[in-house]
Design the sequence.
């Protein structure tokens, strides 16, 4: 059977871009068991409340929820277990250097299959204040209104 090509998104963390300012992104592989992969291929995962942390020079993903595989037996996995992320040593060192700044955290932005391999996109993030969120919403609304006006003008309505 030929290996699948391309990128198939399993889950995205849409709220992350609302609650955090994403400064940089990283791609990492993820260590999974067989039933976890099968559950992911069915499109079942949740990145809500998930975060990544360093422990013993490695990066681990906490609170990622992958529900048990429905046809699994006693070999099924624990849904919220801690999972190790696979990154090159130089990437980890670069990431840890940036994480040493105060107020920065690692959050998963999306979980996907890239050419058949399970990957997670991590974002180096700083938490937004409530006034930052309001400002982003106002900017987005203003841009949307500008696009509407341009669309009406191009159609000759106004």
Sequence:
């Amino acid at each position: 059977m030929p290996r699948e090509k391309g990128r198939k998104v399993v889950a995205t963390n849409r709220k992350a871009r609302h609650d955090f300012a994403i400064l940089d992104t990283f791609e990492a592989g993820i260590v999974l068991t067989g039933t976890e992969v099968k559950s992911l291929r069915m499109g079942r995962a949740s990145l809500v409340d998930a975060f990544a942390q360093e422990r013993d020079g490695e990066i681990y993903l906490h609170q990622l929820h992958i529900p048990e595989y429905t046809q699994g037996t006693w070999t099924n996995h624990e849904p919220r277990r801690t999972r190790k992320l696979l990154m090159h040593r130089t990437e980890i060192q670069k990431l840890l250097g940036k994480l040493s700044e105060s107020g920065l955290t690692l959050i998963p932005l999306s979980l996907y299959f890239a050419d058949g391999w399970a990957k997670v996109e991590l974002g180096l993030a700083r938490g937004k204040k409530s006034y930052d969120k309001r400002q982003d919403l106002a900017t987005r609304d203003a841009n949307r209104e500008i696009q509407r006006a341009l669309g009406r003008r191009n159609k000759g309505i106004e």
Remarks:
- The first strand starts at residue 7 and ends at 12.
- The mean pLDDT is 84.
